[in-house]
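BUG-217 | component: ligand-complex export | severity: low

The export step for adenosine monophosphate jobs runs without errors, but we want the raw record kept on the ticket for reference. Input record follows.
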Amino acid sequence: MILLFVGPKGSGKDTQTQLLESSGFANISTGSLFRQEMQDNTELGMKSKQYYDAGKLVPDELVLEILKKHISKAEADDIVLNGVVRTLEQIKPTEEMLASIEKKIDKVIYFNLSDEEAVKRLANRWTCPVCNTVYHTLFDPPKVAGVCDKDGAALLQRADDKPDAVKMRLSEDRTKTGPVVDHYREIGILHEIDGSKSIEEVASELHELIKVFKEQQ
Ligand code: AMP
């Protein structure tokens, strides 16, 4: 089963993807794949950096390239495509690419969250530069402040989590991701989740939804 997660920055997509990853889903998060490519100084990473750091969307051809590179390595049948489709224009090429490897998006989960709540959350978000684990100083803090639980690296605030980049991204989200949500709602595969609920509440709602989706397959 392939799930596509859409929703504004800070709406909990990354956290829920990480939770599903620990229950066997492959995690294809384009945002974190771009971070990984930039960290490894690959050509793809270098080409994406200027857009990424400014909080802008990376051009579609780079998104498709990164998706193709990493999805072909995914071993699990259950996959979360987290933030992979963010504009109406990305839908067709993404679906064509998936079809070329005999895959398709089965369900789309829309994490709905107000801008106000998103800004509040993002100001407290810290990321491990080594393993990309995301922490939140209020909701999901590391055991030792400022240090990653998994590898002891000093946590950083992502360039795109800084206030100016956040505001730019939220307004881009609203204008660009809105039509993606409308499209999947129209074709009847969209499920909306209230992203303002707690991590546990959203995780349990997702768990129930996935159970139902699997029964329908
Ligand atoms: P995220 O980790 O989801 O907040 O994504 C971080 C950054 O990665 C975004 O601000 C974009 O620069 C880039 N990015 C990730 N996915 C996409 C996509 N589907 N289309 C364009 N840019 C993307």
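Assignee comment: Attached the raw record above. The chain has a mean pLDDT of 92.
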